[in-house]
Structure formats: structure tokens, C-alpha cells
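Record minuted for everyone:
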Amino acid sequence: MTDPFLWTPWRMPYLRGEDRAQYDGCVFCIKGAGGQAEADAREYVVARSTHVYAALNMYPYNNGHLLIIPYAHVPSLENLPAEVLTDLMLTTNKALAALRAVYNPHAFNIGANIGASAGAGIPDHFHVHIVPRWEADTNYLTVISGTRVIPEMLSDTYARLRAAWPGD
């Protein structure tokens, strides 16, 4: 018989509060203001562009879950000017290319939760989610116990996507 436990010892520092970054202000604004290689690596900022940046979701729904985040602190899509919207979609395309190159997913979910009632964890700073999906990736853990199984450490995902990110 197999072991009936799902062992995740790397999560203990998080549960103890030891590896949670402390932010004084909007987490997306702080990450956006970074820009130094060390800070970007620590915050899993995969790529930067003129008006937006791409970062790994720290609490991913699936492996490779990326966020495309405008530098502008606005609550909704319609608050962004045309040049930011263009950059947002072009960066989304680059994210798709990098995710396809690294993980070869069968499909993607791309979307935004605008407002707390829609499920936005950070409702005051608009952002887009890109979630890679695989046909065989549905399992009972998510459905029955609300548990997600992410097969790769964020630091490994970060390194792989940085290396595969398309240039201009």
C-alpha cells in the first residue's frame, strides 16, 4: 500500500511565517519598483517591460501560474491607457510563448478578478492571471480537499521561465 500522506516539508517555513515577505504598502507596487536582479529573483519577477511586468504567483493555482501586472496602481482594466493595454497584451503573448516552450501545456486560462467580490486577492491593483493547463491535470485533491499539487519549486519555475522569455 502506498503512503496515504502528502508530504510538503518545504511549506513549514511558510506556515511558521518565516518566509513571508513583509510589505509596507501594495505588494504589486513594491515589486514593480524593484528592478534589481537580486530583488527580481527574490520576488519572482520573470520579466519587465515599459508599462507592465510578469511575476510568478506566489500561491499558484497550477505550475507556471504567471501574473501580468501594470506598474500603474489602478483597480480595473478600464483605468489603463491604450499604451499600457497594448503592453499588457504583448507581454501576455510573451508569457504564453515562454510557458509553451518550458512546459508545453495543452491549454491556458487567462483572466482577471476585478474587485474583491470577484475573488481578487489584491483588489486595488489590477492584474492578469495566466494559468497553464494540462488534460491529465484534473485530480481529486483539488475537488475533494481543496489541495493543490504543484510539482516544481517556485525558484525552479522562475529560472526556467527567465531563460525561455522571448526578447524584443
User: Anything to note?
Assistant: Strands lie at 45-48, 52-56, 66-70, 107-111, 128-133. The chain is about 35% helix and 15% strand. The two ends are 52 Å apart (CA to CA). Residues 82-103 form the longest helix (22 residues).
